[in-house]
Design goal:
Elements (H helix, E strand, L loop, with lengths): L1 E2 L5 E2 L3 E6 H4 L8 E8 L4 E2 L7 H17 L9 E3 L12 E3 H10 L3 H6 L4 E5 L10 H6 L8 H17 L6 E2 L7 H15 L11 H10 L5 H23 L7 E2 L6 H7 L5 H23 L5
């Protein structure tokens, strides 16, 4: 129980929102946990040394992060990332629900509403969960997207590719690089942003599930959906083997690495060359579908 700003005693509750791979139920061995912490109302705690609700829930969030990321002699469970909260690292660790909603009304950029497509409620107090029913969808579509939405999504995609993938002959980034996982995710999310207000059944935070729904609706041609699905599974299997078997966690494939022969066997290819041909074809096809979906002419 806490005392609100009018001096009345009431209950303030806590919620944890999963974003990214956690929100989409797509975690793998090396995934970060993207978390947002929200509490139901402002006020202060009871007791001899009352503190504000924000301070109380910030301490709770810090303890949760500490437990999840504690390093022991056996390693750690997860890395926790809270940068998707309002204002990123410049914002407070926890936010009241009213302030969180206000942020999306007044300040959130298009990419932040795009990121909210992956949101999933992980935990909420018994009386708080109902406040989130349909909330993520309402915040994504609370105001119209710009007419040049495709160009804005593509601009962000190219920035990720240029600044984060940094590809080279021995650095083929299967996540953020040309024709990689992010191409698939951004193509799906662009269609969700463009059409999800009308066809809300396509709004799944899970990429493969959303692909299936877009195909069922006839929004994405069957051949394109199958190609994206096949590439997605290929990239995820590649990721699992590189991380779990070879301890390569940087997100890129090195064609000259000593693991290539064994990696090809693990992924049921006859040779490293056959694996690389399949990899190159997936990249080519994914980029082609991505550009077609957004109606972008590649320069």
């Amino acid at each position: 129980r806490c005392k609100d700003n009018d001096g009345n005693f009431t209950t303030s509750e806590f919620a944890i929102i999963g974003m990214g791979k956690l929100g989409g139920l797509e975690l793998h061995l090396n995934s970060d946990l993207d978390l947002i912490f929200v509490y139901s109302r402002n006020g202060e705690t009871q007791g001899r040394k009352p503190i504000s609700n924000r301070e109380y829930f910030a301490k709770l969030a810090q303890r949760i992060i500490s437990y999840l990321s504690l390093v022991t002699r056996d390693g750690f469970a997860y890395k926790v990332d809270t940068e998707l909260r309002p204002s990123g690292n410049a914002g407070t660790l926890v936010t009241s629900l009213d302030a969180w909603i206000t942020y999306y009304h007044e300040h959130a950029a298009e990419w932040e509403r795009q990121a909210l497509l992956k949101a999933r409620l992980i935990f909420a107090g018994p009386g708080f969960a109902k406040d989130f029913h349909g909330l993520f969808r309402r915040l994504v579509f609370l105001k119209p997207f710009p007419e040049n939405l495709a160009e804005e999504v593509h601009r962000l995609r190219m920035r990720i590719e240029k600044e984060l993938a940094k590809e080279g002959e021995r650095r083929l980034h299967y996540k953020k690089g040309y024709g990689g996982l992010v191409d698939i995710e951004f193509a799906v999310q662009y269609l969700q942003l463009k059409l999800g207000k009308v066809f809300d059944t396509i709004l799944s935070p899970n990429t493969l599930e959303a692909l299936g729904r877009l195909e069922q609706r006839g929004i994405l041609p069957k051949a394109d959906a199958e190609a994206l699905r096949s590439a997605y599974v290929f990239y995820r299997m590649l990721e699992i083997y590189l991380e779990a078997e070879f301890d390569l966690k940087e997100g890129y494939l090195d064609p000259g690495h000593e693991c290539m022969a064994e990696l090809a066997v693990r992924m049921s290819f006859a040779s490293p060359e056959e694996l690389l041909r399949a990899f190159s074809e997936h990249r080519r096809r994914v980029r082609e579908i991505y550009l077609k979906t957004l109606k972008i002419q590649e320069s």
